[in-house]
Amino acid sequence: MSATDASTASRRARRAQELRERRERERAERRVSAESLRRGGADERRGLRTATPVRDVVAVLGLLLIVAVPLWPLYRHPHLVVTVAGALLIGTAAALLSVRRRLPWYATAVIVVAATIVAGPALAVPSETIAGVVPTVAGLARVGTGLVTGWADIVSVELPLGDYDAVLVPALVVLLAATTVGVTEALRGRRWPALLAALAVLVFGIAFGPRDAFLPVVVGMAAVVWAMLWSIVVRPRLEGVTAEHSRSLRAGQLRRAAVAAVFVLVCAVVGGGVVQAASPGDRSVLRTAFAPDFEPDRQDSPLQAYRASVTGPAAERSLVGVDGLPEGAMLRLSVLDDYNGVAFTIGDQRTSASTGSFARLPYLVDRAGETGTPVSVDVSVHADLGILLPTAGRVASITLPDGDDDGVYYNRELDSAVRTGGAGDGLDYTVTGLDPSPPLRSGLAALEPGDAEQGELVRIPEALVDAAARSWDATQSPGARLQSALDYLHAGYVSHSDEGEVFSRSGHSAGRLDLLATEEPMLGDAEQYAAAFAVLARELGYPSRVVLGLVDQDGDGELSGAELTAWVEVDTASDGWVAVDPNPEPREVPEEEKTISDAVAPPRTVIPPEPPTQQDAIAPRADDSDVEDRAEPPLWQLVLLAVWWWTWRVGLVLAVLTSPLWGVLLAEAIRRRVRRRRDRESLVAAGAWREVRDEIVDSGTTVPVTATRSETAAASGSERAALLAARVDRSVFGRGELSREEVDELWAQLPGVRAELGAGRSRWQRFLGRVSPRSLSSGWRRG
User: Fold this and answer.
1) CB-based burial, 619-643: b 16+ in 10 Å, e otherwise
2) Where are the transmembrane segments (predicted)?
3) Does 521 sit behind a cis peptide bond, omega within 30 degrees of 0 on the bond before it?
């Protein structure tokens, strides 16, 4: 070999050696860099991202306080402040402990759940604690049931909720979870999870809140501006290459923040105006679509049982004892606003907007802006009143003993309350409200018809309307004609057909009201006169309803059956619903004026006993008379329904409690399916390797971000992972595309890799690896 050839070979050898040495140095530098990142680099990066930990915590808590403002109209109770403050304090403490000790998510969740159990009664169910602090067994049980039933109670109880039952538990859970997640992620340098947590609280307040928004523009703008200031301004100080470059970077940051803030403000103002112009009415929330579980449509009309209550021995029986009821005021039992030609009943809220709906008893009925003298009436029930719960005036609150408020429903539109379990003997409670004023007997000429929406009358007593029309002039104002109709009825006489009284038929059907107008003299009682005036007022354009109740006529505080009466309320344009007493003054009936036809009236019938109260079904309708009683279901069907009732509820609770576990498994399964489909379509194996890498990460092995496939496989200690890494490297850096069969073969190696990674580990450790979300935090990578 010549000298030239030797020199050339020597130079090639030196170049090859230099190339190998450079590759070894680069590989060593990568290993050192990866080791530094794993041990110290990550801590350094976390330190840079959390250069303002105190300000980050303050920013998260301030944002949560802003988005918690919509909860106030939902509860409107001072204890809500305690609930919010407690949730923020416990959540922050749990987050600090989690970050300080580097706890996994499930350990943090256990801490939060334990804190909720211990502090839950004091924060959400103060009535079930000792001195408002020490939890009791009943309080712990109430917190547990509130986790399941509290969500439905929020949309079924009329607002404001106050501290009714366990309705504060959902708010506590949402705020506690949002605080823990937000503060934890903010301290770890990730701010977007905290923003999502705050958004969840805001959505909770809106979805479960009232139909009318509470400061929507102010709360929305404040939350967005606060979040932007935190995300853009409150961050580590920018440092450029030079001092001038640093100043330029900071000035640009401030300009971007200012432009973004102005843009958000403009969008909020314009968007709020557009939404208000397009939909000025109430917004649709969860309670809008919620169907209350008490429907009065099939309940017996209490007005039909009037005659049985005011005659015979029932007239002397004490029904209710009162203290504080103003003189001449009525203790309301029931309000009936629908007439089907047979009886006055409670209307259908779907066809009569003024009927409203019965919702669970609220903590407080908002009477802001209404005038009247505040009253407080103590009520003591002495007899079985069925589902009727006596109230006084425009109710502001009804305070029942603990445990007796179950099944209490209140209708704000009708100012009427019921208790599905029955208002039986021994029930004591207090009603506060506004001024149950005595009814009018004159002065109706100045009243103009109101605009309450009511359903059409099914059948009109024509003879009654024609007879009353003769007493007014068509040229008179509606109020003057209403007064004339009232004077027409006041000219009648009162008879209950009791012992020693002139016979008078009971009932208030259209035929009975026609008879009231055609017989001489006009004879009836509160049942007929109230129904007649309500029909006449409706014919004159006044929305009307019949109110059945008790009046303390002798002032002794004991209301008996003889003191039961009925009035009418008419809706007016200026004063709202106004009470009118259509009953004539009791006086002797001139029997000599009775006509021959009246003299041969049908013989007196035996007054039927008071009909039994139906707990599940208020008013018999014309088409319900021939409905047969429904047969009792067989025992096996009742057992099946009971099992199903408990199964889906317990299953729902278990699904919610285990959602962090099956949620991770579901997300990983979806990710695995997406990666495999992409590998099969592109004929690559990058997705298979990503799946192996995620299995290694979830097993607890720390993998540097810059680690190669072979380094990752070596760190895991799995031979199958090393072989798979080598095959994937050859497919990527070698001959290019794989065949479909080769891709499927590589994916088939995953179960073997998982088995090797779990070798030598306990069953509990393998389970924790399966449900670990560590690999999900890196996002959905493309292979």
Assistant:
1) bbbeeeeeeeeeeeeeeeeeeeeee
2) 54-74, 80-99, 106-125, 166-184, 191-208, 214-233, 254-275, 643-670
3) yes
Q: For residue range 128-150, list pLDDT tens digits in order.
A: 888 878 888 888 888 888 887 77
DSSP code of residue 229: I
Pairing of strands 359-360, 428-434: unpaired
> Which residue carries 């009821």 as its tokens?
325
CA 650 to chain centre: 20
pTM metric for this prediction:
0.55
Report the distance separating Cα 530 and Cα 464, nearest Å. 13
Q: Please check whether residue 529 is in contact with residue 621, taking contact to mean a CB–CB distance below 8 angstroms.
A: no
Question: Cα separations (Å) of 444 from 336, 481, 492, 493, 539?
Answer: 22, 9, 19, 22, 16
Q: Can you read off the two tokens belonging to residue 78?
A: 């001072």
Contact 530, 583 (CB under 8 A): yes
Domain range summary for the chain, segments of one domain joined by +: 1-45, 53-236, 297-347+439-622, 659-778
| HSE (side-chain half, CA atoms, 13 Å) at 739 | 3
**Placement of tokens 């505040």 in the chain:** 374
Q: Taking the chain, what is the end-to-end CA distance rounded to the nearest angstrom?
A: 51
**Do residues 167 and 161 make contact, with C-beta atoms less than 8 angstroms apart?**
yes
Residue with tokens 């590989």: 27
What pLDDT digit, counting tens, does each position of 410-444 carry?
888 888 888 887 787 788 999 998 887 788 999 99
- 479 CA to centre of own chain: 43
CA dihedral sign, ordered 462, 466, 472, 473: positive
449 secondary structure, DSSP code: B
CATH no. for 297-347+439-622: 3.10.620
Other C-beta atoms within 10 Å of 55: how many? 15
CA atoms within 13 A on the CB side of 573: 8
> Token digits for 708?
């190669």
**Tens digit of pLDDT for each residue in 225-259?**
787 777 666 665 656 556 776 677 667 666 666 66
CA distance 631 to 348: 26
CB atoms within 10 A of CB 13: 10
| Strands, E assignment, 349-450 | 359-360, 374-381, 388-389, 391-392, 394-399, 408-411, 416-419, 428-434
Burial class (CB in 10 A: 0-12, 13-18, 19+), 25: exposed
Angle CA(251)–CA(257)–CA(260) in degrees, nearest 5?
140
